[in-house]
Amino acid sequence: MESIASKLTWVDYAIIVGYIALLLIIGLRSSLLGKAKQQESLFLANKSLGWASIGFNMWATNVGPSMLLAFASIGYTTGIVAVNFDWYAFVFLLLLALVFAPRYLAADVMTLPEFMGKRYGDTTRSILAWYSLVKMLISWLSLGLFAGGFLIRQVLGVPMWISVVVLVFFAAFFTYIGGLKTIARINIFQMLLLIAVSCLLTVLGLHQVGGFSALYKGVPSGFWNLIRPASDPDYPWHAILLGYPVAAIAFFCTDQAMVQSVLGAKNLEQGQLGVNFIAWLKILSLPLFILTGVLCAVLYPNLADPTQAYLTMVTNLFPTGLNGLVIVVLIAVLVGTIGSSLNSLSTVFTMDIYVKRLNPTASKAQIVRVGRLTILVGCLFAIMMALAIDQIKGLNLFDVFQSVLGFIAPPLSVVFLLTVFWKRTSRLAINVVLSLGSAFSLGVGAAYLWVFTPDKYTFWPHYLLLSFYIFVILMGAAILLSFVGRKEDLAVIPYLAVKTTKTVKWAWGSLIVVMMLLYAIFSGH
Fold first, then answer.
1. What transmembrane ranges does the database entry give (predicted)?
2. How far, CA to CA in Å, does 303 sit from each of 1, 96, 109, 426?
3. The whole model's pTM is what?
4. Residue 265: beta bridge partners?
5. Cβ(110)–Cβ(351) under 8 Å?
6. C-alpha angle 367/352/400, rounded to 5°?
7. Could you tell me which residue, 269 or 392, shows the higher pLDDT?
């Protein structure tokens, strides 16, 4: 495959330089405007975010370079089944908007460990803070950086270590100087750019194929099915139905990187509408990302490596002078994911570890300084982990991302679901699941991914079912421990008892109808 680097012209370089300059202007301007309230701006954007900023920022955090790589790759090999991992998410985003968000905002917290600490005490807060840090370092920073480095290696042919070092420090710059408000402003611009460039690639691909009819007939009919039979080796329907919710609850409802935008909302209504907005945006994953891979399967059916699908389309379809836009989009999605992740990492460590445990009397200047130092340390860790992930064998990229999240998620899903829905849940149960349960879940994950890899050892169930089994074991243990231990007088979880507005009801009602129609359309082929 001809590299994009060999096709770059002075126009492409001008686009890249201009884009980076524009990002620097936006970032520096936002940083200077927020200097008066630096601590609040760095972490929660002064609680000033509206629904559009929340939705775009959450989407930017979610998309990442992995979306471009993995969705195109899985679209190339198996069709649209992977869109379940975005469309099915609306159920759990609804759970965030209507169940979790009113409690988070009523508790007036900066972090989710702080929220849990208000109910179960400081020990629980510390355990969850450390686990959240591990989760963000691995599932957000390291995987996102790895995907970005992988793409840059494909584009420019430079070694992985050079790719990740350059990328992570560029992404960290905006978080370092401006925090959540700067990242949120940049992400609105970047996601609009991503939509535009991805739409252009899809349109060019459809034109080359000969239209929707030719595309539909050019691949096996199973490519258009969202629901696969239970015997399907890659994505059986029951594995997605049972396993995906475990990761989705942890990902959308309990993850600091995703929820932080909601914590920075002006009010509950804006937070609920922002979550609704990302659910609408996730519908676009089919035409913008997965369809790229399906188109590539028709146009270039004999790729040696499916992960080359996205860049194969770009290299062959984008005219000279527009390849710079691709480099720009790679920068955009990386800054969105890594920037939001670093901001959340900094918030959790600074507020839940440094201020709570190490220096309760810290000044605002000290808090900001530690927050920024955490960003730099997070960068170094992410670089090392990205290089380690590059050594994983036996899984495609999409499965690597989903399986890593699937092993991190079960303890979080268990403790947050029980906290919100079952008042009898004990402090002992929560602490055991977060500590011993997390060690068990991560240990199984390490064995699956690095020690007894599924390409050599066939005794493993599907990784989604494995995640579900771990969830069931930990849930059973938590319930048992809650009944065995003495009943505790725990703090009541506050709830923002604000009547759901008509706008919120209409937004979610419309989305539910649309999602039901989409599943009906793409499940009958």
1. 13-33, 54-75, 87-106, 127-152, 158-179, 191-215, 235-254, 275-300, 320-349, 370-389, 401-421, 428-451, 463-485, 506-522
2. 9, 40, 49, 54
3. 0.84
4. 49
5. yes
6. 110
7. 269
